Amino acid sequence: MLRTWEGDWMVQFDTPCEWLKDGRCSHYSLRPQVCRDYDPAECERYCTVPAEKVLIRDEKDLDRYLEERRVNGAKRRSARSKGGSQRRAETGASKATG
């Protein structure tokens, strides 16, 4: 399972094509529509950045992703609550001097 940079979740099947011989299609004129629509410029072999934002291959990857998400969520909540407390303190101080 993977999550794209656009935020979409997808299931990835890593099954090699039977028609691929030495990295080339041996039935090019008969290839299915999914292959016709595929842009070779987006091939993972040539990309310098990962094609996916999140890649979950097994249970450990899922556990790691969920833990990172939990930690990051806690950090965001903490930052928001500190920011809100600071704004309330500033507002109170300005009312006292105003």
Note the main attributes of this structure.
98 residues, mainly alpha, two-stranded antiparallel ribbon
Which SSEs are present, and which pair or pack?
Elements: E1 2-3, E2 9-10, E3 20-21, E4 24-25, H1 33-37, E5 54-55, H2 59-97
Antiparallel strand pairs: 1-2, 1-5, 3-4
Poorly predicted ranges:
none
Structural class: mainly alpha
CA-based shape? elongated
The amount of helix comes to: 40-55%
- Please trace the helix and strand order, writing H or E for each element: EEEEHEH
Extended strand count: 5
> What about the largest sheet?
3 strands, antiparallel
Q: How would you explain this protein's 3D organization?
A:
The model has no long low-confidence stretch (mean pLDDT 82). The chain has 98 residues and is mainly α. It folds into two domains: 1-55, no CATH class; 57-98. It has helices at residues 33-37, 59-97; strands spanning 2-3, 9-10, 20-21, 24-25, 54-55. Strand 3 and strand 4 form a beta hairpin. The chain is elongated and about 75 Å long. The strands form two sheets. Strands 2-1-5 form a three-stranded antiparallel sheet, with no helix packed on it. It has a two-stranded antiparallel ribbon with strand order 3-4. Helix content is 45%, strand content 10%. It is built from two helices and five strands, in the order ββββαβα.
Write a concise synopsis of the structure shown:
The protein is mainly alpha-helical and 98 residues long.
